[in-house]
Amino acid sequence: MSTSVESRAIAKLSWEAAWERLGNALHPPAGYPESTPEQLRECFSNAQQAMEEIRIAYDIRAELTLTKPGS
Description:
The chain has one domain. The mean pLDDT is 89. The chain is mainly α. It contains 2 helices and no strands. The protein is flat, with a radius of gyration of 15 Å.
């Protein structure tokens, strides 16, 4: 993915959609069923992928190493 204005806009829209979907999965709106573990995993995966697309679109180097708490 390039760092053009268009690619940044697309990456941002993708992130916003993934973020909203994750939020709804974590806290379903009134009248909606609770998310299954599989749905939660998919939402987290989609959000992570969308964040990576933002990083690439804005040419931000991945310098952080994420670890699990207690690791």
